[in-house]
Design goal:
It is a single chain. Helix content is about 25%, strand content about 20%. The protein has one domain: Spore Coat Polysaccharide Biosynthesis Protein SpsA, Chain A (Alpha-Beta Complex), CATH 3.90.550. Helix 2 crosses helix 4. The model has no long low-confidence stretch (mean pLDDT about 90). By secondary structure, it is of the alpha/beta class. The protein is globular and about 40 Å long. It has six helices and ten strands; from the N terminus they run E-E-E-H-E-E-H-E-H-E-E-E-H-H-E-H. The strands form two sheets. Strands 1, 4, 5, 6, 7, 8, 9 and 10 form an eight-stranded mixed β-sheet that branches.
Length: about 190
């Protein structure tokens, strides 16, 4: 089994308001994210700073164990509470996760600690799988004030999902399209 974790603790500073609660194609971003994971993950967590914003979301709500630690802190919280060895972490503002991408990544889990796609040579850390072996390393990083997820990758065994591989299941890369500003909604 696999735990799903939607990281909804961001400040949405470029968007101007909490984009997780914004409606896109008739559904809030947070609900789209939960629905995308429910067929593949159990439980599905929403990890956030302010839980009261998500009381109506059909998922298990987790408050960030360590406040103001960014997405790495959200992954830390999800790994701490996960009943399974693996957590799939995803951003709230990426509305088009291809289920085939998750299936491809799950087939690559053996013998590593992280499975992460590459887009144009860059890691996509908020569409990635993390093993519980990452937990103590993340704890150490956060204690030292390190918050970059990609810094974790230098300390763990990482399996990269090449662009050539993931394009076989998501040719347009829609799984990685995200919304940073309101005008981004117009191009999706």
């Amino acid at each position: 089994m696999l735990t799903g974790a939607i990281l909804a603790g961001g400040k949405s500073s470029r968007y101007g308001k909490n984009k997780a609660l914004e409606t896109f194609r008739g559904q809030r971003f947070i609900d789209r994210a939960v629905d995308s994971l429910r067929p593949h993950c159990s439980p599905v967590f929403v990890v956030a700073r302010e839980l009261h914003l998500y009381f109506d979301v059909q998922a298990t709500l987790l408050q960030d164990v360590l406040a103001e630690q960014g997405p790495l802190g959200g992954i830390y919280t999800a790994l701490l509470f996960s009943p399974h060895d693996w957590v799939f972490a995803r951003a709230t503002d990426m509305p088009f996760l291809a289920p085939e991408l998750l299936a491809l990544m799950r087939g690559m889990q053996e013998g590593c600690d992280v499975v992460v796609p590459l887009w144009d040579g860059w890691y996509e850390p908020l569409v990635a799988l993390y093993h519980r072996r990452c937990y103590p390393v993340i704890a150490d990083m956060l204690e030292r004030g390190e918050h970059q997820i990609v810094a974790l990758y230098k300390k763990m065994k990482v399996r990269e999902v090449s662009e050539k591989m993931w394009r076989t299941v998501d040719p347009e890369g829609m799984s990685f399209k995200n919304v940073n500003r309101p005008e981004d909604l117009d191009i999706l």
